Amino acid sequence: MSHSLSRRDALLLPLLGGLFWEAGGGVAWAGQGVGSAAAEIALPDTNGTTVRLSSFRGKVVVIDFFASWCEPCMRELPELEKLHRQLSKAGVVFLGVNLDKERKNALALIQRFGLTFPTLLDPEGKLAETYDPPKMPSTYVVDKAGVVRHINAGFDGAADVARLQKQITALNQ
């Protein structure tokens, strides 16, 4: 029995994938999906200390992928910092994952926006490859059991901040 695709089937796969992508709310199949266990994170922060997602089990964790070359990230980061300052008192953990290849660019961005949440460095994009963010920035909201509950792709402004805050608050009760 052959398992190869016919030419017709091979041509239909991208179309069907696009339909399922749209039906799924815009979150692609690859990488981390809503309802899946969040992949372990083991990356150095800006001080060189390895941070592991598993060490935050029992807490809601917000994982945000960003980079200095991402224009929407520049608008999102100050808002994330505000949410971090507000919600960390309730035990919510914010982790930034910077994708800049140059450490100096990541450090300059952190300083520019006065970011106080831990920023992890992923210059080779290995974690980004695992999570496969659909857009830049992308924010993953992980529940207390380590399951991805929300993926917010891109950043358009105040409505995105309000939605993110609502998602986090609902999971942190």
Helical proportion?
25-40%
Largest sheet at a glance?
A: 5 strands, mixed
C-alpha end-to-end distance: 53 Å
How would you name the CATH homologous superfamily? Answer: Glutaredoxin
Number of separate strands: 7
How would you summarize the topology of this molecule?
Blueprint: H1 7-23, E1 42-44, E2 50-52, E3 61-66, H2 71-87, E4 93-98, H3 103-113, E5 119-121, H4 126-131, E6 138-142, E7 148-153, H5 158-171
Describe the structure.
The chain is of the alpha/beta class. It has one domain (32-171): Glutaredoxin, CATH 3.40.30. 38% of the residues lie in helices and 18% in strands. It is built from 5 helices and 7 strands; from the N terminus they run αβββαβαβαββα. It has helices at residues 7-23, 71-87, 103-113, 126-131, 158-171, and strands spanning 42-44, 50-52, 61-66, 93-98, 119-121, 138-142, 148-153. The strands form 2 sheets. A 5-stranded mixed beta sheet has the order 5-4-3-6-7. The longest helix is centred in the N-terminal third of the chain and has 17 residues, at 7-23. The radius of gyration is 17 Å and the shape is globular. The N and C termini lie far apart (53 Å). 28% of the residues are buried.
